[in-house]
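Protocol step 4 of 6: record predicted structures for both targets in the notebook before any analysis. Target 1:
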Amino acid sequence: MSPINSDFVPTGLPRMCFLGYRQIRELAMPVVAEYAGVAHIELVDGSFGEALEIAQNRIDRGAVDVFVSAGSNAAILRAGLHIPVATIQLSGFDLLQALIKARGIAARVGIVMYGETIPELEAVKDLLNIEISQHAYQTAEDARLCFEALRRAGFEVIVGSSLVVELSEEAGLHGLLAYSLASIRKAFDDALELARMARLEAGRYEQLHSVLHNLQDAVVAVDRQDRIIAINPPMQQLLGDPGQPLVGEVLQTLEPALSLRSTLESGRQERAVALRFGQHDWVVHRTPIREHGEIVGAALTLYDARNIEAADTSLRVLQRRRQYAARHSFDSITGKSTELRDAIASARRFARTDLNVLITGESGVGKEVFAQAIHNDGVRAGRPFVAVNCASFPESLLESELFGYDEGAFTGSRRGGKRGLFEAAHTGTLFLDEIGDMPLSLQTRLLRVLQEREIMRLGGTAPIPIDVRVIAATHQPLAELIEQRRFRQDLYYRLNTLRLVLPPLRARREDIAALVTPVVARCLKDLGSTLDVQRALAPLMERLTAYDWPGNVRELENLSERIAVFLLQYAKLQDVEYDALEHDCPELFPTLDTLSDPAGPDFPDHAERVREAMRRAGGRRGEAARKLGVSRSTLWRWLQEVNWQESPPAG
């Protein structure tokens, strides 16, 4: 155990416990130092079952608000504890960064991570020009077996979790931790938020109890000798005649089951103890009363168990509602192009109505962002915003998720049934993403819900009225799907009351700089780079603007992170070799085969396109490069490929 702060814990600071292996703890030390002023942080080494035992000990002592951990430890803690656990997430950016480091050591890299392997790495290995062998583990023994397999196969560099790095070091191999300071910092931020929310909920719970204590629950207070010094009417009625004065009487004599002598002697607080008294079930709290650190009395509160159950249900409902909240607004949408402003103007008009909206556009253009903004700008703002991806669930599961089910509807159904997402979105907005991929059978049920404004749970017998605004989105050509009888025409017209078409990124190229710059700046800052982002990106802006971005904003964010990793290797801007970026970002370095047609369909030959661009530009290479949408250096390379000959001067 290695507490970072001194024995003095500042009042009110969240208490965080960082649980993990030595390697990740050592990596986290700079981040721990950053957060020392805003939280009391305890670092503890432990893993698997040992970690759970250590964590439970701190919970029992009331010494922690939130845990921070990674990989297998985080999974074990989340499954075994009721205290919040902030997980250090392994991002693709982290893994890419680790693989770049590994590439500098060896051309064959082993990866051993908790959980599952990552299929997308097959594409990354080609970009990095390295051999990758992936393994995943669930237990410590699994991890050792994976490690041994890689060691026997001759791998000298292994990327993975703390456990894997420790095994590598013991075997004399190169072990690289897959996590980054940015991921740890993000987990600490999440932990602070979890601690804040937990304390907020605890405060509300205590406030509720205070109201119950003062208004309706039975309360009695005694002095050091167990003599009653205060009693409220509900307790007076429980102990005897309401008109009989009880102040000064010994509580143990009046009712031994309610005695506070053990509390007076031990000074320990007893909370949430179940008690059967007066033919009722109660929840009992016994609390010592202190003055200047000395016990001068004790208080007993009897809470009616029925009221506690009702209050607990209300709190859980409140917590469930907070899970369905829209985060984005129109102010969070970046860009000033005419196409984007027109889309925002239409969306703002739609937000003032309560009609259904169909948002269309290519994948990655930000359909859910616009849906959230419409919700937050409308009359249903502050109500639930429930999003469901219709393409991510199998048909049977999607039906139960949307409409819910009653108890016994099918084998394995939850006891008491479960409400569906339509019910969860009641009075708010239901966002149906990828509606074009919804099975036909569910399209029929959805159409009926939109018409009748009521749903029927699976296995249910009574319809449930709902008040929901539906916003649907798709990148599919619904008109073609209707012709192919894969999408219902009547559902299309029901959803297509208001239609919002979002432009692809290539249609608003003037917004690209404003989108790329903050993403690269954030990544470089997280990685500790001090490069001037705008100056660093200036030589790339022409390429970024010329690229067509088939993946739109989602692809832009991904490629921006790759650019940040590339820039990370340079301490000074004058040292940046931008041509080397072609290895990591080949999209920005088109070849003649990927050249777009600048002169129209009359020039099917790519070489002729280049020649025609030069002729139309009067031989001015800068003008020709602009027409082609490429840099001057790329145009020069293409001119060499097509054997371009400068025209001799006239005369």
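Target 2:
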Amino acid sequence: MMLVCRARWRRVCTAFAAATALLVAAPAAAREKAVDLVDPFVGTLGDFGQLTPAAVAPYGMVQLGPDTHPKNHAGYDFAARQLRGFSHTRAVGVGCGGGGGDLLVSLLPEGAPPLAAFDKASERASAGRYRVTYANGITAEMTATRGAGLLRFTVAKPGRYVLRFDAANAYTRRHAATIAADLRASMTAGTVCDEGAYTIHSASRVTLDGRPAPLATVTGAVATLPLTLRRGAVVEVRTGLSTVDPTAAEMVRDTELGARPFAAVLAATRARWQHELSRLDVAAPRDRRALFYTSLYRVMQTPVTIQDPDGRHRGSDGRIHRSAPGETRYASWALWDNYRTQLPLIALIDPARAADIARSLVALYGEGKQRWATKTEPFLTVRTEHAGVALLDFRRRGITGFDARAALTGMVRESDTLQRDTPDQQIEAAYDDWAIAELAADLGDAATAARFRAKALAYRPMWRATFETLGADADVVKARGLYQGTLWQYRWAPVFDLDWMVETLGRARFLSELDTFFARGLYNMTNQPDIHVPWLYAALGRPAATSAIVHRYLTQPVDHPYANEGKRPQPWHGRSFALAPQGFADGMDDDAGAMTAWYVWGSLGLYPLVPGKPEWAVAAPLVNRATLRLANGRVLDIRKNGTDAPTITLDGVPQAGGALALR
């Protein structure tokens, strides 16, 4: 079944207008709060998610957390037992070698080796907080605001210690780094995959038992402070980050942290997390609720808010900009991964934030947007493909607070730069061209709409020649130049043209070959190109088939035969999502909330099958009940109803057969 506004094979209609939909539901008093259910250790083991237990605020720049040896892409590995220190930035579950690691801070006894053993049993993490005890009984505890981090050390033994600030540390190539005796620093490093570069500035203040520390000694890009500490001494490091300059970073630090006690900063950050997470209220067994809210916690970490309290920020053009009053600038993009799942979820649960994200995407086009990243990014980013699809999707979900005509101009200009050499590139470019045509039509530009509709549909002969009848190389990863996928997996990619694909193959053949796809284990849950495919059944009137597949991947160990570089000799068998450090399938990155958003959608029984169309595929939810409180005071309730489509009520009135309308 499909929740749609236009199409002949839908059964329940809705616009789910994100501008009027705000999911706010207070958990029942008898249950734990959502914030208390979050487990930041999920997905932090090895190559299972590539996540971190770092302290972070919702959509915050600062991810202040441990750097271990060995490490994963986010600087930490749950299996590690040696600590390098604590750094302030990370990309969220992305590939290549990750990104971040800016300003590594460590406190060690004088003369101690740089790698310190830590007490694994002492390690604790929760939303907004991380804590560990290591060398000679030193305890490190940290929390964060949007743009600042507070790191507190408590020593168990008196003696001589060295506090160290390493501005050269990075998970990608470090291009430049400077630090001064007053602990102001500027750092430039490669973005994720070293495709571009970003520059970040910091300003730190150190206190010893509440008193200011002396100036540091600087050698290269490292600053050190020798300290004589009593037993129980407390060393606090307060650091602000800014895309503008070190002075701006100092202003961020003093505005967001000031002299507030650690407990007050932590309480405020956790209150923010509770506010954001409780936009959705779900009823389910505790473990299932915990994994749901842990997944939602990851969804709410990107993109990040980069603007300082005075509204200033750097753009991708390297210039300083100032946001208009009431607006917020975002950066740190991984759009190829998360335009499919994470951005539509933000549009649904937080339309005001989605409007700021949309304005930020439009600004990219005016600042020299590249396919991956520029050489003057303001912060960590991965790639920016399909920004136009995301903008069309936002607008059609009711988010109109951005300059759609400026977006269209940028999208048209970008079209000529898109790669179209391989079958997947042609499909991806066609999706962008389709978005141009649709947005142009919405804006009344018939000529542009006609031109780009023809350009978009020009992929069809290639699809018929390549995908209509699959050959011997259909199950070969990277066959014919494909990116991290097989012909079977990319076959279903043109979701924007789904009616045509069904008509071309015939409905019976289309469904039969979907059955073959899953029966032969050809589906890849660990990467994005085919993650929508289980929901095609629901779109064609078989929600029970979607429910069976989605629930299996949400709850059961399954075979995972694919890696990015090829098919495994033996499948990796295990859970795709689990409430454990090994929280994802082997080799499965969360990819900036893309996969955790998939978990959230599957739990709700909804899925944004075609980004760019205001519709959701519908199947049985995993949770027993989900409550969505709409901004206009109305309440949407989703209740599990066996393996079929859920029971949906609006203000208590059952919705069925095409009557659900939320605008």
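Step 5 preliminary note on target 2. The mean pLDDT is 92. The longest helix spans residues 423-442.
Proceed to step 6 after PI sign-off.
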